[in-house]
Amino acid sequence: MDDVVTAPAATPRIVGLASHLPENRVPAAYFRQFADADSRTLTSNPMFAPPAYRHHAAAGESNVDLMCAAVDRLREQVGDEALQADVVLSHSQLPDLPVVGCGGDVVRRLGTRPSLVLDIHNGGCAAFLLMLHLARTMFTAGTARSALLLTATNAAGNVFTQDRVRNLPQAAIPGDGAAAALVVADPQAGGLEVREVVCAQHSEYAGDMTAAVEPPRKYWEAGEGQLHVGFTEAKIAKVLARGNRLVPEVALAAAAAGGLRGPEVGHLVTNQPNRTFLRNWRDALELPPERHPDTFDECGNLFAVGVPHTFATARADGRIGSGEDVVLAAFAHAGDFAAGALIRT
């Protein structure tokens, strides 16, 4: 696989992992009432087959609110240790303010004093894995001993319910939520061992994710149209082809770094854009459905929250037990970044 970077040899531990979903649980029928004829036709495309449910952030419910709620869940596991992390790494799918990420505001709300707050904008759906890579690198360099990892999205309840967007086929796919993890450098700390992290940068695809609005304008310019992510038939085909290739590549690379082939992986946890990707990814690793847990039908596409939320959920309900080699994998945007990690539970 080209352009793959393997993280340094430090072995961090995930000592706490929690997630939070907004209370508003929205059925697919909400979107069906607004769908026009074109939208109903496109939902037959596997790219746009909607989940049964998704959760929407309430009006005014910010990414910071969601992240703080996830941290509250995390504190139920690790107590105030969650508030004592040396560094805070955060990613929000839809930043609440232009330019400014969420990390600093979360730290202000929590009343903590980390030495560094870093917002990870370009990690996309693979942001949690990119954070593991960065935390591992910092631990190896000796610049930090613990890191609080935060992901959130509130785009579903804000962007995809706009009256000129909610009729589009892609509107029914996203969901909102947040996740929080505490990662430490102490090899005696227990928890989940981060055995390997691999990252693959494909910047040749970086310009392929675009926003759409009619009439056309820059996102910061005033106008009548409502901004959303646009899809064309050509773009859908490209993203499907790339996604089908990129996630298995990083997943298999992470497994191979631990001496495993695809079928030897205990469980695979990925981001979850649609059911077609989920099926193709587990088929590529020769895994049965029960070893590839997902939360798509309850949560839809959670973007960067998908991997940590599904991992936390599958561990909490017993689908993933102790002593397993679990591979986490995801790709971002239109394929400009992908990452995988091998975790020993």
Automatic annotation (TrEMBL):
Domain called Beta-ketoacyl-[acyl-carrier-protein] synthase III N-terminal: residue spans: 122-191
Keyword tags: Acyltransferase, Transferase
GO biological process: fatty acid biosynthetic process; secondary metabolite biosynthetic process
Highest taxon of source: Bacteria
Pfam families: ACP_syn_III, ACP_syn_III_C
Domain (Beta-ketoacyl-[acyl-carrier-protein] synthase III C-terminal) ranges: 259-344
GO molecular function term, any single one: 3-oxoacyl-[acyl-carrier-protein] synthase activity
Protein name stated in the entry: 3-oxoacyl-[acyl-carrier-protein] synthase-3
Organism, scientific name: Tsukamurella tyrosinosolvens
